[in-house]
Amino acid sequence: MKIHIIGGGNLGVSVALGIAKFSKNNQVTVTRRNTASILHLENLGITVSSDNTHQIEEADLIILTIKPYQVDTVLGEILPKISNKTIASAVSGLSVEHLQNKIGDSNSAIRIMPNIAAQFGASATCIAFREKDKENAQNVVALFQELGTAPIIDEKLMDAATVLAASGTAFALRYIRASMQAGIEIGFDWQTALAISAQTVKGAAEMLLEEKGHPEQLIDRVTTPQGCTIAGLNEMEMHGFSSSLIRGIKTSLKQIKG
Ligand SMILES: NC(=O)c1ccc[n+]([C@@H]2O[C@H](COP(=O)([O-])OP(=O)(O)OC[C@H]3O[C@@H](n4cnc5c(N)ncnc54)[C@H](OP(=O)(O)O)[C@@H]3O)[C@@H](O)[C@H]2O)c1
């Protein structure tokens, strides 16, 4: 596929890098107004342009990774040049219905919610679309499956997906930071503590994804009766470990919904 990403910022560049590394049969163009900071992408075979309409007629898929207030300007530039295109939008808060109204019936509106781990082939990208666009959405689903996992969800869960998958990256990083800080207190330099904490989280996640079990089943394998792990876990829970995370996620969702 020829993939045209409009908005070469944090997310757009991550997706472009992910495609270049993990979905090599596709050709990528990335656009933004000021291209100086992303010209290095050209070394990886990615086309960089400040013109949103650069060869857009040939694109099989257009991905929007711009801020909500930039959407009308961008669509004003590209719509006169395209028809029968699939437009996948990562723009927070822009519904499929709203996007479809803006792009007209000749194009298909797909809503995606990736995260910046797309760059490492490890994004959790939730995808929503209307039944009429099921066929066109298959390419989008297949692409994001190559960049991690890509569940198709009911669009009414898209705000929740934003919190769990996009904000969730920050939540997971904060867990790793806390674990690393504790690691320093119990004797490691910060680099070693970070390496151990990050790899331990990666290992735990890989076991879960591989075995498709419930976390408690794996926890049970690590917690020896009267051992140090269950003592630490219970102490953390007494200080609100799980409940503070659940409250944080629900607060983020409330904030999104306004
Ligand atoms: N970051 C995440 O983890 C994440 C995850 C899921 C969804 N999202 C959503 O994805 C969107 C982008 O987020 P982000 O964090 O990547 O923001 P960002 O880093 O600010 O990227 C937005 C990019 O759009 C470019 N841009 C602005 N106006 C443009 C125009 N008229 N034509 C072409 N490019 C234009 C900007 O570059 P110039 O100013 O040089 O044009 C900028 O590089 C947002 O709607 C966000 O909610 C982000």
TrEMBL record:
Assigned GO CC terms: cytoplasm
Pathway of action: Amino-acid biosynthesis; L-proline biosynthesis; L-proline from L-glutamate 5-semialdehyde: step 1/1
GO biological process, one term: L-proline biosynthetic process
Localization, UniProt: Cytoplasm
Coiled coil: none
Chief location of this protein within or outside the cell: cytoplasm
Domain Pyrroline-5-carboxylate reductase catalytic N-terminal: 2-89
An example Gene Ontology molecular-function term: pyrroline-5-carboxylate reductase activity
Binding site for NADP(+): 6-11
Pfam families, sorted: F420_oxidored, P5CR_dimer
E.C. number: 1.5.1.2
UniProt keywords, alphabetically: Amino-acid biosynthesis, Cytoplasm, NADP, Oxidoreductase, Proline biosynthesis
Top-level taxon of origin: Bacteria
Enzymatic reactions: L-proline + NAD(+) = (S)-1-pyrroline-5-carboxylate + NADH + 2 H(+); L-proline + NADP(+) = (S)-1-pyrroline-5-carboxylate + NADPH + 2 H(+)
Domain Pyrroline-5-carboxylate reductase dimerisation: 155-255
Top EC category: oxidoreductase
Similarity field: Belongs to the pyrroline-5-carboxylate reductase family.
Function comment: Catalyzes the reduction of 1-pyrroline-5-carboxylate (PCA) to L-proline.
HAMAP family: P5C_reductase (MF_01925)
Entry protein name: Pyrroline-5-carboxylate reductase
